[in-house]
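Q: I have two molecules that I believe assemble together. Could you output structure tokens for the complex as a whole instead of separate predictions?
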Amino acid sequence: MAKRILFLITIFGLLAVSALFAQEKLQKDWKPDKIKGTRFIPYPPYSGTPYFNEKFVLGEIELLDGTKIGNLGIRYSSFQDELIYYNTDIKTQIVIDKISLKGFSYPDELGTKRSFRRQNFDTYLQEERFFEVLSDGNISLLAYRKVDLETCDTSYSKFGLAYMPAYHFYAWSAGKGYTSLKMSRSSLLSKFDKPSQKIVKRLLRKNGIQILDEATFVQAWNLIMQNGLSINF
Amino acid sequence: MLILFVAITGKSQEKNHFSLFTDRDLYASGETMLIKVYVPADEPSGIVNIDLLNTKGRIISGISKKITGHQADGYIYIPDSLSSGSYLLCTSTKINSSLTFKELYITNRFTGIPEVGTPVRASKIKPLKNRLIDDLQIEGLDKSVKAREKLEVSLNLPKDIVAQIEGNLFVSVSEVTPGYNSQSFQSTIHRDNFKSAEKEGVVLDGYLKDLKTGIPFKNGVVYLSIPDSIPRFDFYITGDDGYFNFQLDNYYGKIPVVVQGFDNEDKHLLKISVNRRDSLKNCLPDFESWEISPAFRTSAEESKDAVTFRKIFNQPEVAVQPAMKPGTDRYPFFGVPNIVVDPQLFINLPDFTEISRELLTGVKYRAYNRIPSLQIFNSAQRTYFNDSPLLLIDGIPVRDLSVIKDLGSKEIAKIEISMNERYYGNLKFPGVLAIHTKKADYSRVLVSDEVVKLNFDCIQPDVTLTTLSEHPLNEPDLRKVLLWNPSVKPGQTIKFNFGTSDLVGNYKLVICGADKDGSIFYKEHLFEVN
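A: Yes, here they are, computed for all two components at once.
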């Protein structure tokens, strides 16, 4: 019995030590020294959510000089297209200067890593935007997770205004720029010429992929890219 | 077993020291000393420091060089004010407790070697020995060559040696001083453990102390500002020891720096000091008297004359490569300003109170009872901040508001206003007012106990030796260093060209390199110029 107790004490001791070291590592990652930004002013409380991730999650940001800062409590505001972090030292929500960031990433509720990168949106609106990278490659599939403040029925929001998702999806390549996409089979097929469309249809049928939503669209996109088919835009 | 242990530790000790080479062992004041350093393979620092010091340990001149492939090379200009005597060259890094010294003799080119007084040399030292390789063939260099002769020399290295070489080789041809054999030796120094290694640039560090008590000040804020088109700003919060440090990555040459430290709660007056390498007194060996040989004295006399002639004919020894500049930030550290005002577009206003009243929306600068106050409008909260904003003059934070009191619009090039609560790490700024003066010389930033302005030596830019072709034929060619190539790509056959100068005497070709195991090998070839 004494041996068992000793064994259990050793196990618990080892677990405690490893947990302590893990904690220390998290603490060491926390380096807010270089983060620049302005104080976050909360948005008006209308119905819907202005944020892409409602809760602060521990994520990683990459600064312009390539410095990566991990273990940072971040929240992406779809409404203002800005990244907010919580500075635990001074207990303040800070909007990180968009211009100082290359991108950021964090795991969602399912543990899937969601990566965003800042890119210049050089169409009719010249602005810097955070795009979620759904698929990366020569031609990337990007999502602009925008939320608009729109008028709505007062039964939904008593002020008559609500935060409504207005996501935009794009295919993007460095040389050609952006082309808009919808998360549908017809939108995807429209980006191929006639002979390629047949191949794409066959490929999707063979692999049993039905484009119904964003997830299946991304699945189909990745399959097409793996098979070396190039889209026209 | 004991012998084996001693042998192994002795061998590893040998490999752990810096290997230091200079173009010559005897110099005259006003000359340039060329230096090559081999760094131990396990050295964590990315920057090596090389200092010239006198026999009392005082550092006369020092440089910092970036370590590339466990090697570095640089130069030290020998000041004309040095008196004749023995000097030491020391190489070290910020965290390595091991130092390597090399003995040198410097003659003052105006006074020469004094007849009175006892010259000294290091004694009781254990000279460092490098491995001599014999199976390296030198072709095209006879034992005796003519002055002003152009030479093409080939070095033939055996295959097995080439395979063992780590990094680049170093080749030099220079004058030899008769009667003087310079020695290198190792020493150690106590290093504080908390000091950070220099990686991509030099570290500027120091201490913040209470002005009254002299006790290290905890939680003091230290600002570092480097004036530039977009000034660089960094900060440090001191710990219990009051120590602070800033990594100046990829800064080359001398740069203007302003460091200021203060108590964020404004309860204590502080004193800031920046660490400088000024003395290595505790690491010096013993010195003993030394009799200068007549041959050495003659050589030293000739050497100093040659330097003076080169100065008269304006023949520089080395050409300094332009210093690289790190990329400036894409935007100021206080963010993209909300408002930018050019006072030149308006009528001339005599002082800053007038400027703030007439030109600056959301800026209140007032001087009631001669006490100036500054407030900025918080655009998000639609009210003025209670606290004073961050005030910058030419990118340098200024805490004394009276400094801008008499600034008229004639002196100001641009005013930038940020009307947000800005954050930089844990620092909070209730708005920012950045004034860019036309002079842009930050002369309005006053030096005090809390503010230090200095021209800080960062990584030394590279140099190349001026060659024979650069000297016109109607001028004397008084080069003592005929070839200096600190980074030669290793190969089985290495060819290089050089020309002898008008100075006759003994010369030495040195080829040197590092093995993959970290040991240094070298080969010398002596020849005479007639």
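A: One point stands out. Confidence is low (pLDDT under 50) at residues 1-14 of chain B.
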